[in-house]
Amino acid sequence: MAEQVPLVDYLVLGDAPHLTAHECTTCGARYFDRRNGCASCGTDEFTTVDVATTGEVRAFTIVAFAAPGVRVPYVAAMVDCGGTSVRANLINVEPDPEHVTLGMAVRLATEVIGTDERGTEAIGFGFEPVPAGA
Amino acid sequence: MPGVFAQIGMEYGHRYGGTSFELFARISEKNHAHSTLNPLAAYSKRFTLEEIMGDLMIAYPNTRPMCSANCDGAAAAVVVSGAKLKTLSIEQQRRAVKISASVLTTDPWEESCQILPDVNTLTRNAAALAYEQAGVGPSDLDLVELHDCFATAELVHYDNLMLCEVGGAVDFFNSGATWRDGSMPVNVSGGLESKGHPIAATGIANVWEVATHLRGEAADRQIAGAKVGLAHVIGLGSACGVHILEKAA
Q1: Does A86 sit within 8 Å of B59, measured CB to CB?
Q2: Beta strands A54-63 and A74-81: pairing type?
Q3: Measuring CA to CA, which of A27, A67, B143, B240 is 20 to 30 A from B181?
Q4: Segment A33-47 mean pLDDT
């Protein structure tokens, strides 16, 4: 299997891909990426926590107009994963308002977003609709 | 940027319900209708609802006329003390407008602010402080110029500026209140969607629009008898300015 690298440090690959956040040990505020101090309470101790891999779409837009080289349309969304808001695109769904709705249930999904000359794959993440009955 | 503000409007809809592509387009329809009376607007053309909804989609639910217009522009304000004003001509004193509140706020931390800029909390905080400074309430306002960088943004600022009940922005707009003949005219200039959004000048341009009505110099778009107005501007990151202006006594 080709070597894989995640698009961002907070995406953990493997059998059960998931996101991690840095959680303030004092107030519980969560941050993606590196954090030196807490913007909520001002303290500087964090622990790493897993973010729920299912969530609800709190907001979305369907971007139809973008810089050259960016494929459109795509759906950018804000997903509430058990109280932690995550920014991601919605994937594996038709990018139109008939198929994307506020409050829809989604789950984390990964996808290959690029491959270099050695075959190493860059893995990104998005959220896809949870199939009925799943 | 269009996508960010699209989501800000959609998030309001998720929280309180009642929003739709058509609702946001009707906000734009209002502002473009207002712009026909403003000779200084970059676009002073009225669009039908069908034209707005059928125009080029930028970032759903905002089509091109629902986005602020790119343009150049300039605006200025001359600020003097009450003592200085007394030394100026009678005509200048007549045209002077009182700054009853001048507030600048920035973001406190909010759970989701790392992934979607929060334009709500700081606007609400600025408005609350401005009403307190000025000693007036939302019901005292004769007109409001708010930061409609996108049609989706105007809706949330009805609520943030406390022009309506919390969660009531959709009903408030649907009541017709924010049209120029309504109980709370909003963006009678045509808003940023029509008059344009020359970033650094936008805030002062909103102040200028309100001041022009308080002076009774707004010609065809004059809100009759305007005595108190509010001007609002934001910049992502975020900063918010709210001014309450009153007609000189």
Answers
A1: no
A2: antiparallel
A3: B240
A4: 95
Q: Are B149 and A69 in contact (CB under 8 A)?
A: no
pLDDT at B249: 64
Distance CA B82, CA B121 (A): 33
Contacts of B106 in chain A (CB under 8 A): none
For residue B116, give both structure tokens: 């979607």
Does residue B194 have a cis bond before it (omega within 30 degrees)?
A: no
Question: Residue A120 corresponds to which tokens in the numbers above?
Answer: 């190493």
Cβ of B116 within 8 Å of Cβ of A39? The answer is no
For A11, B95, B141, B196, the CA distances from B77, given in Å and listed in that order, are 50, 12, 21, 19
- pLDDT (tens digit, 9 = 90+) per residue, B32-47? 999 999 999 999 999 9
Residue appearing with tokens 């344009």: B196
Which strand ranges, in their side-by-side order, compose the sheet holding B228-235?
B97-106, B239-247, B228-235, B143-145
For residues A57 and B115, give the distance between their C-alpha atoms in angstroms, rounded to a whole number: 13
Determine the structural domain holding residue A67 and report its residue range. Answer: 4-129
CB neighbour class for B138 (10 Å; exposed up to 12, middle 13-18, buried from 19): middle
Residues 6+ apart with CB under 8 A from B83: none
| Mean pLDDT, residues B177-181 taken together | 98
> Closest residue of B to A100, CA-based?
B60
* A2 pLDDT higher than 90: no
Rounded Cα–Cα distance for residues A120 and A115 (Å):
5
Q: Which residue has the tokens 């308080």?
A: B214
- Chain A residue at shortest CA distance from B113: A85
CATH value at residue B177: 3.40.47.10
Q: What per-residue string of b and e applies to B198-224 under the rule 16 or more CB within 10 Å gives b?
A: beebbbbbbbbbbbbbbbeebeebbbe
Secondary structure (3-state) at B40: coil
* Residue A134 domain flag: no
Closest by CA position to B52, among listed B145, B192, B178, B151: B151
Question: Taking residues B134-151, what's their average pLDDT?
Answer: 98
> Which of A26, A27, A61 would you mutate first to test chain B, the one with the most B CBs within 10 A?
A61
Total of domains in chain B? 1
Does the interface predicted TM-score (ipTM) exceed 0.85? yes
A33 within a domain of the structure (yes/no): yes
